[in-house]
Design brief:
The protein is of the alpha/beta class. The chain is built from 14 helices and 19 strands. The model has no long low-confidence stretch (mean pLDDT about 90). The structure holds cytidine-5'-triphosphate (CTP).
Length: about 400
């Protein structure tokens, strides 16, 4: 089975020496069944001819916005609408800058603005250009906008330098494109497709004063793994993240809500509770916060300082009380008597499942990429997972949740 059968891909080719590789790329994409419409920039035509790409794609090649051959249509709009994916390979520093700032001064940049299809770019340029702050900040803008990157490889560049900047090989690009469509298919037909999943992650921040706070060691990794995996299984995900060690996933289909305190998280979660199918509270929420958060930095004075702490709202307990068919999963991070406390929390907070871990075990708990968990429902133990990656924990838990929540009607 050809991996790109039935897919329409716009291949944007920009003017770098790597443009010569676009011929092999066009050919391989076409061989995998894709309908490839090439748009070249004027500089790309200095490196490779339209005729080559037309012969390989068996399609007309576009480069001039104003050379409309069919009076009944406008090419850049038609192409933009028809695309399942717009791939720019090679992408020069120039097109990256134009995309970042919305400049539309030729056929390719105009099409990139007009399309609502996913966009993927494979940068290729001199190593110093690749590291230039302007290029880095433009790439950052695109990354945050959901553009997907096919990172350049390292090696001998055409300019003579050895470093990062060489266009990824056509075979590798075709593989990334194939995986992208396979993932898209999973999202359409995955076990969580059409379901709304809310996930909380990270440790809440309870302010003492403008420069000091109380928090905990939660890295956010377990919550991020759950968000990415739920998305890959087809869910529409809202990720409510407090303080985390790494940047949260920015995949399309994951809506990120940043919060600080337990109170912020409570409000963010409650706002989405009615309209949610599955909610997973992976965040480590502070149980207490300072009674008052000082407006200005607290000055050093006596030998001791007493902070009065007051209880925060237990978010999970509030959700459990307000449950109307939603499937609710909590975590129990314990340092002993894990099973006893986990079962107690499950009952007390009216949860459907609880994921318990002993955070003192090597390879489990805060900050690691792995975890060792036991999952309980009201009847008892349902999953006993050995030391595995947090991604795998997420897969197993979400598979179980998908099965069980399927019977729930809202
Ligand atoms: N939790 C919450 N709101 C709080 C405290 C905890 O929603 N104010 C949630 C956490 O997100 C987690 C679960 O409750 O999913 C268990 O958190 P944990 O700190 O282990 O439990 P607590 O109920 O706080 O119990 P204890 O601190 O006594 O162990």
């Amino acid at each position: 089975m050809k991996s790109l059968q039935g897919k329409t891909i716009i291949l944007g080719i920009t003017g770098g020496i790597a443009a010569y590789k676009a011929a092999a790329l066009t050919s391989k994409l076409t061989q995998q069944g894709a309908e490839v419409h090439v748009i070249m920039t004027a500089s790309a035509k200095q490196f490779i001819t339209e005729l080559t790409l037309q012969s390989l794609s068996k399609q007309r090649v576009y480069s001039d916005t104003f050379q409309e051959r069919d009076p009944s249509s406008i090419s850049h709009i038609d192409l933009a609408d028809a695309a399942d994916l717009v791939l720019v390979a090679p992408a020069t520093a120039n097109i990256i800058a134009k995309m970042a700032h919305g400049i539309a001064d030729d056929m390719l940049s105009t099409t990139l603005l007009a399309t609502t299809a996913p966009v993927m770019i494979a940068p290729a340029m001199n190593v110093h250009m690749y590291q230039h702050p302007a290029v880095l900040s433009n790439m950052d803008i695109l990354y945050n906008r959901g553009v997907q990157f096919i990172e350049p490889g390292e090696g001998l560049l055409a300019c003579g330098y050895v470093g990062k900047g060489r266009l990824e090989e056509p075979e590798a690009i075709v593989k990334v494109v194939g995986n992208f469509f396979a993932l898209q298919q999973d999202r359409k037909s995955g076990p969580l497709s059409g379901r709304k999943v809310v996930i909380t992650a990270g440790g809440t921040v309870e302010r003492i004063d403008p420069v000091r706070y109380i928090s905990n060691d939660s890295s956010g990794k377990m919550g991020f793994a759950l968000a990415r995996t739920a998305r890959a299984m087809g869910a529409e995900v809202t990720l409510i993240a407090a303080r985390t060690d790494e940047a949260p996933p920015r995949d399309a289909g994951i809506t990120l809500v940043r919060v600080q305190s337990a109170q912020d998280m409570y409000e963010a979660v409650m706002e989405r509770w009615e309209d949610c199918d599955i909610l997973i509270k992976a965040a480590a929420v502070a149980d207490y916060r300072p009674r008052q958060s000082a407006e200005s930095k607290i000055k050093k004075s006596g030998d001791t300082l007493t902070l009065e702490l007051v209880k925060t709202t237990d978010i999970l307990e509030s959700l459990g009380k307000a449950k109307k068919g939603q499937f609710l999963i909590g975590f129990a991070a314990e340092t002993g008597d894990t099973e006893f406390y986990a079962k107690d929390k499950l009952a007390r907070k009216n949860l459907d499942l609880i994921i318990a871990n002993d955070v003192t075990a090597a390879g489990a708990g805060f900050g690691t990429d792995t975890n060792i968990v036991k999952v309980y429902d009201a009847e008892g133990l349902v999953l006993d997972l050995p030391l595995i990656s947090k991604d795998e924990v997420a897969r197993q838990v979400l598979r179980l949740a998908a099965e069980r929540a399927a019977g729930v009607s809202l």
